[in-house]
Amino acid sequence: MKRTERFSLYVALTALTALAIDGVLPVMPMIQADLAIAPPFSGAQIITVFVLGMAIGELLIGPFSDAAGRRPAVIAGLIVFVVGTILAATADSFAAVVFGRFIQGAGVAGPKIGTRAMIRDRYAGTDMAQVMSVIFTLLILVPMIAPAVGAVIAATFGWRGVFWAYLVLAAGLGGWLWTRHPETLPIEKRIPLQFRRLARNTRTVLCRPDVTPVIIATGFIFGAQLTYFAVAAELFGAIYGLSTAMPGFFAILATGTGAALLLNVRCVGRTGMEAPILAGVVLLGVSGAALLGAAALTQGHPPLAVMLGLGWLGFFALGLLFGNLNALAMRPLGDLAGLSSTIIASISSLVAVIFATTVEAMAAGPVWAIAWAFALAALLSAVLIIRAIPVSSRREIFRAFHIFR
């Protein structure tokens, strides 16, 4: 397999998670209109339950990929994803859709975690950093186009057509991987499943005071974004009456995250991870506080330009935070990097689901939900990050911002 084809496969497998979240956003109102919703279900669960399944799948797939190999782990995840897709596509009740989304989320952990492991097996050091930079740069495009693609498919085939498209995509990726990409983990390097060892190493990771607060902070930040995903359909449909334009608005907001990722690639080598993290937390807090003020002055219905402007600032902040927080949590873990990446992904996703579900349930509308999510995530994350960063590193942050001269 040539380098270009390998990169393309890695990008496609990694992008499945974003496609499964962003592509379904335009059809959420169609699903709710077609299938009766009764408590304890809500439209937002189409997103949050998917992430809950993903969190559980992430916890299982990492050790499985170390024991069975990367290709079996990815293929197993894709098979589970396809099962969930069929359940959702053929559902005759909203509860069945939610259950299918949970299975989809558990399955998507396979390509998400397995692909990262394949990259880690094949590349190291600077080469690995370059590969990941290329992949994440290309992934910037996914949130910009996925809602539009979902809307086009739904306009032709209905909301169920989006799920059938997921099935075709997953099947195609599985065939591509199995026929073209070799196994990257030799048999002699595989680690048998030993639950006692896994429990011991997990305890080692979670007992570190410089790691666990960052994992939880990552969950709050992801939860802020997840809150937006959960209420986006209601925001642009019920509040602004522009549901058909939602893919375009989402693309605008996604450019904020893309701009931050590109800026971070250029600057993080000079400033370190801590300074962009601090900048991201501050900007997210400013965005949330300003949006709270705008919501209070307009009874939860600020002008669309204000909503998009402050939302763009919030998404820019999220772009500064995601990769740097993950790297900050991974930095002290050394030989436990493989297991640690799984733990970080799983626990942060669980925290995000709890955070987003709570905020969405308590807020008095979608604008309020996004505003509170941004503000609270910034505040809580700032406290946790400061607690985790050594005093010497805090001084470096202040120097980076020219607070101390």
Write the layout of secondary structure elements.
Blueprint: H1 3-22, H2 28-34, H3 45-68, H4 70-89, H5 94-122, H6 125-139, H7 141-157, H8 159-180, H9 195-206, H10 212-239, H11 246-271, H12 274-297, H13 304-330, H14 337-362, H15 366-388, H16 391-400
Protein name: MFS transporter, DHA1 family, bicyclomycin/chloramphenicol resistance protein
Keywords: Membrane, Transmembrane, Transmembrane helix, Transport
GO molecular function, one term: transmembrane transporter activity
**Reported CATH architecture of the largest domain:** Up-down Bundle
H/E series: HHHHHHHHHHHHHHHH
Helix/strand-derived class?
mainly alpha
Number of domains: 2
Q: Hey, roughly how much beta strand do the residues contain? A: under 5%
Largest sheet: none
Instruction: Tell me the CATH superfamily of the largest domain.
Output: MFS general substrate transporter like domains
Cα end-to-end separation: 52 Å
Would you give the CATH topology of the largest domain?
Growth Hormone, Chain: A
CATH class of the largest domain: Mainly Alpha
What is the mean predicted local confidence, pLDDT?
87
**Cα shape:** globular
Radius of gyration (CA) equals 21 Å
Number of helices, counting only DSSP H or I runs of 4 residues or more: 16
User: Which blocks of ≥5 consecutive residues have pLDDT under 50?
Assistant: none
